[in-house]
Amino acid sequence: MATFLYRLGRGSLRLRWLVLALWVLIIAGVATAASTLQEETNPSMELPGTESQEAFDLLEERFPAMDADGASAQLVFQSENGEPLSDESNRAVVDEAVAAMQDSPQIASVTSPFATDEQGNPVGMLAEDETIGVVQVSYTETAMQLDEGTTEYLKDAVEDARDAGITVEIGGDALQEIPIGGLTELIGIAVALLVLVVTFGALIAAGLPIVTAVLGVALTTAGIMAATSFMNVSDDTGTLATMIGLAVGIDYALFILSRYRSELAADGRIEDKRARAEAMGRAVGTAGTAVFFAGLTVIIALLGLSVVNIPFLTEMAAAAAVTVLIAVVIAVTLLPALAGFAGKRVFTGRQRRRIAEGRHDEKPSGGRRWGGFVTRHPIMVGLVGVIGLGAIAIPSADLELGLPDAGSFSEENTARRAYDLISDGFGPGFNGQMMIVGDLAEGTDPMAAAQQVTAELGEIDGIAVVGRAVPNEAGDTVLVTVIPETAPAAETTNQLVHDIRDVLADDEGADWAVTGQTAINIDISDGLNAALIPYLLVVVGLAALILLLVFRSLLVPLLATLGFTLSVFASLGALVAVFQWGWMGDLFGVEQPGPIMSMMPIMMIGMVFGLAMDYQIFLFTRVREAYVHGADPKAAIQEGYAHSSRVVVAAALIMISVFAAFILSTEVFIAAMGFGLAAAVAFDAFVVRMAIIPSLMSILGRAGWWIPKWLDRILPNVDVEGEKLQRHLAETRAETGERELVGAAK
Q: What is the pLDDT of residue 362?
């Protein structure tokens, strides 16, 4: 592996014009595909095979007039000074809004708060004191398929009502928008550039990792746009791919470029083009091998999310995995080519003079001093690290999972204000209505089935309202609307869904199912929780095998995995404290503490595991390199950290800054994910990899590198420390020297 990558890195620098041309063609091709094939993303979260999804599909089939899949809007009116909305002046405003919405483009139905059925029974949503009422609007198209003119029409109708002196807020998904990125990415890139400038001391060298990372993310983003033409793509897919792509893209380029500068400085022939090609070959052959396996662990961790069998989650993970793959390929091909164009300017003039004078200081002593401190006080360092992370992890025991609703939005959001008004006027459960769908057995009387299910539902605790059971035209399906007493994200609502299913499971006359967005969200959460253990087994098992190949040790993969577990629980603890309990919520923009999004733990485990193994590989390949070349275990740790700790610290700071910038997102899920990943990287890089793991390896000594001889014989040698590469280079130099001697003799 190292020899192949050596040739690839050297060849990419020497043939830089060809490499650049190939990448320009690739970028142009993907960009063209994106511009011609892009379609709307899909905001829905579906879980095939679950009761709620199957019932939703049945509802669309048996009640087509309902437009169950269409967008909805709730115009929530609140009168001023406690006056009833039924007063003449107030009602005139509401009726005018209803009439206006009936003329809206793409409209399916409009229900006034004052609406009644044929018998005169109220069917609209009007609060008991009549100060709050809801105009319910349904559209023929999904939220992402609504024309701009349709949404503007909705906003204008609401503004007209507000101008008349009545408070009006808009709930539902009709105004749902795809979050627009830009600011968060720019902040992360700016901080990364600052760290790179401090690390390299040269602006051009600092800019190369930024350029390659941005190109990698741009390629993935364009690919996602093109993919929307033949598959459903979630709104958040591109955001997560950008988050991961920027972080690993900068880090991978940083590791290779740092090794290249070190090799070139050690050689001293900065002006020699052949020397630069050789230095790049050695850098890609050594650091590039670590990048390859680090990227492989991240890709495995991300693709392992497919075992959860949730399409939108698999799509997000696949997009992020492709981003990582592109980052690896760019780091070992395009980066060497760009470094070739930069030439000697990867160093500043001052740095070049120091190297020419033999005063090269690319190997800082800070890492060696830290390695020495850890190896001299391993028990103290290890205990402080473990106890500290353990204390931070304590809140994770109170982790509550759920999927966010409008109640978690900012109070400046009209959907959040509409949510609050509905809760005040009708009760929190009216924000999470559920539908009970009955697929009747052949010969079953639909009216009898309707009466029976209504009676059974009326006996279940936690239900505020049981609506009138409605059969479809064919008489083979019955639909009942149920209003819970509690909010959609409440744990009691979760239990209510399961209680309803248990009560209706024994009905022989119909196959009953609970659906609606609340039930779908609950089923997604249950599916994620059930898949967590299988996912861990698959990902940890495969990654442990990779680490076994890389380090040829039984204990290093074990310690790496245990350290990762500690950092994940600590980051979950920090996430619970801030986003669930609200500690320091103002500092991180948490306006409404609540349950952690269900997919957060499994996605954090997937991404953090891969990233944690990155640092394990980058740090301990240099430690192993020193160990296999004869250093004792403690000296190997000091030597490895002398070479790698500075660049790993820089890489961690870059990754933390990229993730932390996403805390500024208005999307709760993205903000929480950014916070969780930033915390996890900080804990894992600075506490686990820089303190706990070296302290334990120092205590274990040579036992830490033990591997059974039979296992050592059957494992393929991936040569991550470049030992075979060094022999290859030595043999090449010897053959070259012999040819030169023979030529001189002739």
A: 46
